[in-house]
Amino acid sequence: MILKIVIICLVVIFAASVLFYTEHLYLNIFKTHDFTDENYDVNSFLERLVYLERQEHTAQMCHLFKSPSKADENYQQAINDSVLMEHILVDNHHKLLYCYVPKVACTNWKRVFMVLSGGETASADLSQIPADVVHKPGTLDRLSDYPAARAAEMLSTYTKFLFVRHPFERLLSAYRNKLEQRHDSSRYFQSRFGRRIVKRYRANATERALRDGDDVTFAEFAGFVADTRDTVFNEHWASIDRLCRPCAVNYDFIGKHESLFQDSDFLLKHVAGVSDVRFPKGPDTNTSTQLVKYFTQLDHNTILRLYSIFEWDFKLFNYNLQNILGYEVG
């Protein structure tokens, strides 16, 4: 009996905290929860506190490290950012805005959005929707498709979310998928970027390497990304801060690649209110287990330069370098 009273008291305290943050941070994540329901799911409630903590951390980092400015209530800063507007996908039926980040399960989330927006039936095997279809321009609505006033209204009223990943794991995933492996989809990157990288960063490169660009080493790729002289933008290794501007857009939900399926199912069920769509489970990757193997190929200075490029992603989403270097930087 005493234990039950203690649990009830803790839940009441949590509920009061949640209501405070809902009012002050405008968090849609708790709007579907009925705190007066005696049969509510305590585990689900505690899960929401994890997501609340992520939002609170990002908000704190924005306040501490980004230049303080007057609240942009009309989202003028956001709607004037063409990269951001291009990366926010729209589901009008469920009033969802998703800022997609390459190498953070964006292909599967685009498949989900095709179903949510009516492009595919909910009973379809989402994993069977071809990747080239979901990435094809025009398949999904983007915020950039709308007039500025309407886009600002949607940013103010729709539920906004994104998924993030350890910056160096995401960078390694981009290298392995676009330059190291011999997929048909890799040929574009090997031709456009691989040849450029070989020419600039490899002494005594062979004619074949200069022609094909399909044998770029991770050290060469890291040097290319870390080299601020090269300003060629590519979304696959641009920072999440650059793509989604989390200090300009108050995201209602921040999912993580490390808990991808749990976070995705929670978002669909408890935030979007969708019960007949499940996030597709793709093949497991071993990128996270390969971090040390690849990054120990780099000198310390290159790692520090890479960290400086992705510094905001580390800070905003609470990542560190302990598992790679054994100590923190920055």
Helix/strand/pairing category: mainly alpha
Q: Strand order of the main beta sheet, please?
A: 1-2-3-4
Roughly what is the average pLDDT, rounded to an integer? 84
Major beta-sheet overview: 4 strands, mixed
- The percentage helix is 40-55%
Oligomer classification: single chain
Number of strands: 4
> In DSSP terms, counting alpha (H) and pi (I) runs of 4 or more, how many helices?
17
Please write the string of helix (H) and strand (E) elements: HHHHEEHHHEHHHHHEHHHHH
Q: What are the low-pLDDT stretches, counting only 5+ consecutive residues below 50? A: 10-26, 32-39
Distance between the termini: 49 Å
Radius of gyration of CA atoms, rounded to a whole number = 21 Å
Apparent shape: globular
In brief:
With 330 residues, the protein is mostly helical. The protein has helices at residues 2-25, 42-65, 76-79, 82-87, 106-116, 131-134, 148-157, 167-180, 187-201, 207-212, 218-226, 240-244, 260-271, 291-295, 300-309, 311-316, 322-325, and strands at residues 88-91, 96-99, 159-164, 253-256. Strands 1-2-3-4 form a four-stranded mixed sheet.
